[in-house]
């Protein structure tokens, strides 16, 4: 439940559809700015879908040039397979992490 600017207790009322739900059922309690909001599992799933649809980013793999750079470094520094995999993972993470 929302009391003033706080979430209290285990029973909640969805800020979108007014359905009652409990912590055990899932959903999400949070704040928009300082305003407490509660989303039942169904509305929370809908909100997540909307956010996902707004996200136009696509996963980016490595270019042939980037793959070659890693292979050249691997030979130059005599990296073992584990190091090569870590380099690939780091490069992919760098290309697919956004602020
Ligand atoms: Zn709801």
Descriptive labels:
binds zinc ion, two-stranded antiparallel ribbon, 99 residues, elongated, alpha+beta, 3 helices, 6 strands
Question: What is the topological layout?
Answer:
Elements: E1 2-3, E2 6-7, E3 11-13, E4 20-22, E5 28-32, E6 35-39, H1 41-54, H2 64-77, H3 81-96
Antiparallel strand pairs: 1-2, 3-4, 5-6
Helix pairs in contact: 2-3
Bound molecules: zinc ion (ZN).
Q: Could you characterize what this model shows?
A:
The chain has 99 residues and is of the alpha+beta class. The protein folds into two domains: 2-54, no CATH class; 64-96. Helix content is 44%, strand content 20%. Strands 1-2 form a two-stranded antiparallel ribbon. A two-stranded antiparallel sheet has the order 3-4. A hairpin with a 6-residue loop joins strand 3 and strand 4. Helix 2 (64-77) runs antiparallel to helix 3 (81-96). The protein is elongated and about 65 Å long. The chain starts with a strand and ends with a helix. The model has no long low-confidence stretch (mean pLDDT 94). Zinc ion is lined by residues 14, 16-17, 19, 40, 42-43.
